[in-house]
Write a structure and sequence with these properties.
Structural class of chain B: alpha+beta
Radius of gyration of chain B: 18 Å
Number of strands of chain B: 4
CATH architecture of the largest domain in chain A: 3-Layer(aba) Sandwich
Order of helices and strands of chain B: HHHHEHHEEEH
CATH topology of the largest domain in chain B: Glutaredoxin
Oligomer: heterodimer
Largest sheet of chain A: 6 strands, mixed
Bound molecules: iron/sulfur cluster, FE2/S2 (inorganic) cluster
Strand content of chain A: 15-25%
Largest interface: A-B, 16 and 13 residues
CATH class of the largest domain in chain B: Alpha Beta
CATH architecture of the largest domain in chain B: 3-Layer(aba) Sandwich
Number of strands of chain A: 25
Shape of chain A: elongated
Largest sheet of chain B: 4 strands, mixed
Structural class of chain A: alpha+beta
Distance between the termini of chain B: 47 Å
CATH topology of the largest domain in chain A: Rossmann fold
Radius of gyration of chain A: 28 Å
Distance between the termini of chain A: 52 Å
Helix content of chain B: 40-55%
CATH superfamily of the largest domain in chain B: Glutaredoxin
């Protein structure tokens, strides 16, 4: 197998590989800015310099030439090389900053050059704390600058598009953002204007940078030049908690990180998953963070004399129990939801079957033409395939409307059917409708009982995407009944761990008065005296599903965590409608 | 204002495109076609070039702004690029520039009211041997400038008489 020597250590490799990527894959480091594993490598930041040589071969014999100590004779490249765009070759010898002073010096001087016109405004810059330029300057940069004259000034606070703001002075012209629009989103909206020390990225004159994936450039930008118009100045990165999760705004199930502070979701960023979304996500998915904070149903609501009033959990339980018992079991319609997780849907189905009610039905939430073949899908719900795999009957909009009309009692799981125009609100008048919901809507407004349940940001639960891949979320945000320090699934941020009580402020209103559906249903089951129906976590529900349903065999939270999601049997998840 | 290429322009553009395996490299020569036609490559013209070549507007903009020889705004009919880089500076480049500023009644970087002249201060144009010098609209070099020679040039240009190409004898290598 071909070999390469890096800092005196021998490594074997296969196929074509970029030196910088290979070094990183071995867990070592070379500083860099412009390289990105998913894009071309123009090698324009010049930060990733290393020393490279090839052993000298005797042309006649094909043998490596040896010096008097018996070591291979190395012919070094006359100049340092950028490791990002050099491919490794058999026998190559590489020295990084760890073993070579010239490399160290080159990297330091390059940073000094890059910083000449950089404003060094880290204290007011959004990127600080997660800024490759800041981090690498600390690690490899010079301690000061010899440049003591006026810096070049460039445009600041340029609204490149509806979601992205540019500070051209911070830009180091790595062209990651322009390459993103050329190679990944393919809208070709950005270019570098001008040249020399005056250049910076921009859209064509009079045009907006309104790429549906524009916010990825904000993540890509290795400095604070591109910032999110929405997130700008809202929080310092080290104040937030970062929790892995799944995008619930469409059917693709992009892997994301949810960033919270004081139990408010402040932003959503993509998380790498080669199988699903690579490093990217659509802007729409990021906007969905608002759903976790705003307009939430907190505490059960009940209709009395045609007006919804705050109720209590006990009341909610008693009311549902009473209503369900008051009618023939066949007159209860249970509507499952592609917007809810596999676990929630399963719990509802199990409850129905134990009480001898009709099994749940559901209708997918599809908007034709929404998808783009990349990360946007026609399917606007994260878990339609989960409902299919659970064996629920898939109904058309009309079918659902008819089922609602026929029923005397409707239990509806977080699907805003009235808002989607599937049922009209007057159809809900004569029926008792209980909605398990996360957010207020026209549908909840017209319900007789609204039970607040947790969102994907508040529970650990799984969702099956359009490609039949099951992936799960982690609780990111506390509810009235959960606690970051006690729930081992929840992430703790720097402030949670090291802060004093003066650093951590807690706003009680940010914790929603809601329960995971399985906890509520368990309480309800206990009230009704049902046995074998007590669930405290999504984890145990998934274990139960995996044991009972062949289609989910082998699925567990551990397995999903290990493989960042599992692709299930595709044939069972095709759309029937 | 709506810009359109003429039939002849389009024919020429087709010829340019045929020279390259892809369209992208045609950007530079086609920008020249545009600048020769309209006298500048304002954003509107850049857009026309992009549309004609079927390339992203951002790309054409990036190329046009990279080179100072493309005029991104309307200029005078004659653009005078006066060199003030080292050799010209030592031989009186600034005097020529100031003289021109006075005669034309504009500052460097500006255009005369009648739209006839634009005056620029530029860096080395590679004619150090015959400094001081200036260049007219990306084209002819006027060398070994004196105040008198400059005045004569302005008078000619005012009458739209173009100066001849100047032939310079090199000390070690005879031209011709
Ligand atoms: S704005 Fe950021 S990503 Fe774009 S070229 Fe500048 S530094 Fe690179
Ligand atoms: S990462 Fe290699 S030159 Fe920028």
């Amino acid at each position: 197998m071909p070999e390469v020597f890096i800092d005196g250590k021998r490594y074997e490799y296969e196929g074509e590989q970029r030196l910088l990527q290979f070094i990183q894959d071995q867990g070592m480091e070379v500083p860099f800015f412009c390289y990105h594993p998913s894009m071309t490598a123009p090698a324009n930041c010049r930060q990733c310099m290393v020393k490279v040589g090839q052993p000298v071969k005797d042309r006649e014999t094909g043998e490596y030439e040896k010096d008097e100590d018996g070591e291979r004779v190395i012919r070094w490249f006359p100049k340092l090389q950028t490791s990002c765009n050099i491919m490794i070759a058999d026998g190559m010898v590489v020295k990084t900053q760890e073993t070579d002073d010239l490399v160290k010096r080159a990297q330091k001087d390059n940073l000094e050059l890059i910083l000449i016109n950089h404003p060094l405004d880290c204290p007011i810059c959004d990127q600080a704390g997660e800024c490759p330029l800041q981090i690498q300057t600390y690690k490899y940069g010079p301690e000061g600058s010899r440049f003591e004259v006026k810096k070049v000034h460039k445009p600041k606070r340029v609204q490149l598009g509806p979601r992205v703001v540019l500070d051209a002075e911070r830009c180091i012209n790595c062209t990651r953002c322009t390459r993103f629009t050329e190679e990944i989103s393919k809208t070709h909206q950005l270019t570098i204007t001008s040249r020399g020390d005056k250049n910076y990225p921009t859209a064509a004159p009079g045009r907006e940078f309104d790429d549906p994936y524009s916010l990825n450039t904000v993540d890509l930008c290795p400095v604070g030049a591109l910032t999110s118009a929405d997130f700008r100045f809202k929080a310092r990165v080290w104040e937030m908690n970062q929790t892995p999760s799944i995008d619930i705004s469409n059917g693709k199930g992009c892997n994301i990180d949810i960033w919270t502070r004081d139990n408010l979701v402040l932003r959503i960023t993509p998380r790498f998953n080669e199988e699903v979304n690579d490093y990217w996500m659509p802007d729409e998915g990021r906007e969905a963070y608002k759903r976790f904070n705003e307009n939430r149903v907190s505490r059960p609501l009940q209709k009395l004399d045609n007006e919804q009033v705050n109720s209590s959990w006990n009341n909610a339980i008693a009311t549902i129990s009473e209503q369900v018992d008051g009618v023939d079991k066949k007159d209860v319609t249970i509507i499952a939801s592609p917007h809810a997780s596999v676990e929630e849907n399963y719990i509802l189905a199990k409850f129905a079957s134990l009480l001898g009610m009709n099994p749940p039905v559901f209708t997918p939430h599809v908007e034709k033409g929404k998808g783009d073949g990349f990360l946007l899908t026609d399917d606007l719900a994260p878990n339609a395939n989960g409902c299919r795999l659970l064996g629920f009957e898939e109904k058309s909009a009309a079918g659902i409307a008819a089922a609602v009309e026929k029923a005397k009692v409707v239990l509806l799981l977080s699907d805003h059917l009235a808002d989607r125009g599937i049922i009209t609100t007057d159809k809900l008048k004569d029926t008792f409708v209980a909605v398990f919901a996360t957010n207020h809507s026209e549908t909840t407004k017209n319900a007789d009982l609204v039970v607040p349940i947790t969102t994907a940001a508040e529970h650990a639960a799984s969702y099956v995407n359009v490609d039949g891949r099951i992936q799960r979320t982690f609780p990111a945000k506390e509810t009235k009944y959960s606690n970051r320090r006690l729930d081992l699934e929840m992430s703790e941020g720097r402030l949670d761990r090291y802060g004093t009580s003066f650093d951590n402020w807690i706003t009680e209103e940010n914790k929603i008065d809601c329960l995971p559906l399985w906890r509520f249903m368990s309480e309800l089951a206990a009230y009704k005296g049902m046995e074998n129906f007590a669930y405290t976590s999504g984890r145990e529900i998934m274990d139960e599903i995996a044991a009972a349903n062949d289609l989910f065999s082998g699925v567990s939270y551990e397995a999903m965590d290990e493989q960042s999601g599992i692709t299930l049997d595709k044939t069972k998840t095709t759309v029937k409608l | 204002m709506e810009y359109e290429f003429t039939k002849e322009d389009l024919k020429e553009i087709e010829k340019i495109k045929a020279k390259y395996p892809e369209v992208m490299p045609a950007t530079l020569p086609v920008l020249w076609v545009a600048q020769n036609r309209f006298g500048h490559v304002e954003p509107e013209v850049q857009r026309l070039v992009a549309k004609t070549l079927g390339l992203p507007e951002a790309h054409v903009h990036g190329v046009a702004t990279f080179y100072t020889q493309y005029y991104k705004e309307k200029k005078g009919k004659y653009v005078l690029d006066v060199c003030t880089c080292l050799s010209c500076q030592l031989c009186g480049g600034y005097d020529i520039l100031e003289h021109l500023e006075k005669t034309l009644g504009i500052k460097k970087g500006e255009t005369t009211q009648d739209g006839k002249f634009t005056l620029n201060e530029v860096e080395c144009l590679g004619a150090c041997g015959y400094a001081p010098m200036l260049q007219i609209t990306n084209d002819k070099y006027i060398n070994n400038l004196t105040v008198e020679k400059t005045d004569k040039l302005i008078d000619m240009l005012k009458k739209d008489e173009e100066p001849e190409y100047e032939e310079i004898e090199m000390p070690l290598r005879k031209v011709k």
